[in-house]
Amino acid sequence: MNFRFSLNKLALLLLSFGLITTNRVVAAEKIILEYGPLEFSLSVKSLETYSLTGKIEPDLANYTHKFTPEQLQKFQEILQTKADLDTVTIADFLNSYQGETILKKVGEIIQTNGEINGFYALRGALILASADENGLTPVNILKQFPTSEIRISSGEGLEVFNLVTKAIEDTTKAIASIESEAQAERSNQTSSFSPSPKDLLQQGVNKFSVKTLDLKDLKRNRIIPVDLYQPESKNAPLIIISHGLGSDRTTFDYLAKHLASWGFAVAVLEHPGNDASQIDSLLSGLANTVTVPQELIDRPLDITFVLNELDVLLGKEINVKRVGIMGQSFGAYTSLALAGAPLNWEELSKNCQINNNKNFNASLLLQCLALKLPRRDYILKDERIIAVMAINPLTSAIFGEENLSQIEIPVMFISGSNDAVTPALAEQIKPFIWLNNPEKYLVLMKKGTHFSTLNESSGSIPISLEIRGPDPKIAQEYVKGLSVAFFQTYVAEQTEYKDYLNANYAQFLSKYLMPLSLIKSLEL
User: Fold this and answer.
1) b/e string for 79-110 if b means 16 or more Cβ within 10 A?
2) Same domain flag for 478 and 347
3) What mean pLDDT do residues 400-410 have?
């Protein structure tokens, strides 16, 4: 085993317990639920028995007597669910900035004796459960907890529950407002959308070639691979695609091919600091974070560098002066930074306080990394970017209302209502309202997730079907049709395509499994 792996694993275990032996005396025997001055208990053994046999002991019956048979079966399945992660992977992730941040928040609710934050105990339990022959299941994690009691703070738990409940309610209301606005916009249009001879979902007529360029930025010591999809036509308009964390340049291969067939040159680059290889390094213990703060700066600079290189190499064949950009998640942040939104230090300081453990917006883990950068005005805007399509962007703290509103070019936000990584309301719906440019669009994929538009590729991190949501081919078709209309309108200056950028076209595209709405304005 790698020596660093061994030290890392040992350090985590020692931190968790003070010392580790193969025959531990202390292990969790019961769970204590605090409710004001009252306490309720449940034995871990009862949960284990139910998990293995389905038998409900009397103390468990106090909590399950109102469950339906279906709910009981689901509960048993949850207790038996095993995460397929090895000890080194778990140890290294929990030692990362992101892992520690998440665990400290959970530790406010799941505590040890004496109502102490359960951070260290949880970390040790997770590591030991992953090393145990029974694996990383909820019951085994409870069994490996290093104190005799696990205390669940109802005060913290109820506060978090109320915050989550309010966020769900507010998001539900916002989605209803979007659907109502879309209906109003459809009613105000002179006629319902009827497909023109151009079916934007079909492959275009342009032939294209694909070549890979390894561009070396000597000043920043970065090698940036770029797949260039180049149509045969001269002076083709250019679209840049920026991937998210854990993805690579094949993640949006389906979109690059589609846009190229419609006459666009498409440059799909791979950001070397946070592509799939970086996530592999994290999981294998060669890195301790999903990305470093400098990537918030390097990503936009990657694209400016690529544009400079393409101008020199192919400036007579493709139009590098007027460029559209599409990004997803971290790539959407990258796109908006290039479009003219500066980092907002004041908003970051307000939203990223160390003790702010009640905000479960996962995207803040990435946004708040900016505070580790030297605090100065970074010039990331590239005037060649004239239109931006941002899928699942993270915006709330890194830009805030003041700085996001500085974007003056056409913007399309694409959001998934079930996005647990960059929550729709906080990161796309409210920020859409902040945009001052009248050429703005908000697209909502109801039931869509953070991963719905991603193409599974050999290089990217695998995502389960449950996390990806409804059939991703539906979301990919949406992106194909909308991107052709958006970039033809604002990059290729083919104004007839603007007829597609409306609520009626969204309804025309919409599928039952993932209903689609498109609006141009919103009030909440």
Assistant:
1) beeeeebebbbbbbbbbbbbbbebbbbbbbbb
2) yes
3) 97
R_g (Cα) of the chain, nearest Å: 25
Of 157, 180, 200, the last residue of a domain is: 157
Q: Do both 223 and 276 map to the same domain?
A: yes
Note whether residue 247 is domain-resident: yes
Q: Which residues pair with 441 in a beta bridge?
A: 412
d(CA 359, CA 365): 10
> Do 94 and 217 fall into the same domain?
no
Give residue 90's pLDDT band: very low, low, confident or very high (50, 70, 90): confident
Residues 144 and 197 occupy one common structural domain: no
H helix or E strand, kind and range, residue 401: helix 400-404
**% of the chain residues with pLDDT over 70:** 81
Would you say residue 329 lies in a domain?
yes
Cite the beta strand spans of 254-317 per DSSP E: 265-269
- Rounded CA-CA distance 28/170 in Å is 38
Tell me: pLDDT of 92 over 50: yes
Instruction: Tell me the whole-structure pTM to 2 decimals.
Output: 0.78
Which one of 142, 157, 172 terminates a domain?
157
Report the C-alpha dihedral over residues 237, 331, 291, 270, rounded to 10 degrees.
-30
| Mean pLDDT along residues 72-86 | 79
Q: State the Cα–Cα distance between residues 213 and 259, nearest whole angstrom.
A: 19
Phi, psi torsion values for 332, nearest 5 degrees: -70, -40
> Is 197 a member of any domain?
yes
Considering the domain architecture, whether residues 513 and 466 belong to the same structural domain is answered as yes
User: What does the pLDDT average to over 12-30?
Assistant: 48
Residue 288: the pLDDT is 47
Q: What are phi and psi of 151, to 5 degrees?
A: -100, 125
Structural contact between residues 502 and 442, judged by C-beta atoms closer than 8 angstroms: no
Strand 236-242 relative to strand 265-269: parallel, antiparallel, unpaired? parallel
Sheet holding 236-242, edge to edge: 208-217, 222-231, 265-269, 236-242, 318-328, 385-391, 411-416, 440-445, 516-519
Q: Across 115-129, 155-169, 247-261, which has the greatest mean pLDDT?
A: 247-261
**Using H for helix, E for strand and C for coil, what is the string for 258-280?**
HHHHCCCEEEEECCCCCCHHHHH
State whether 135 and 194 are in the same domain: no
Cα separation of 18 and 219, whole Å? 46
Q: Is residue 166 part of a domain?
A: no
Domain that holds residue 421: 189-519
Q: How far is CA 227 from the centre of its chain?
A: 24
Q: Are residues 117 and 200 in the same domain?
A: no
Q: Say whether pLDDT at 5 is over 70.
A: no
pLDDT band at 4 (very low <50, low <70, confident <90, very high): very low
**Rounded distance, CA 464 to CA 482, Å?**
26
Same domain? For 375 and 427 the reply is: yes
Does residue 293 register a pLDDT over 90?
yes
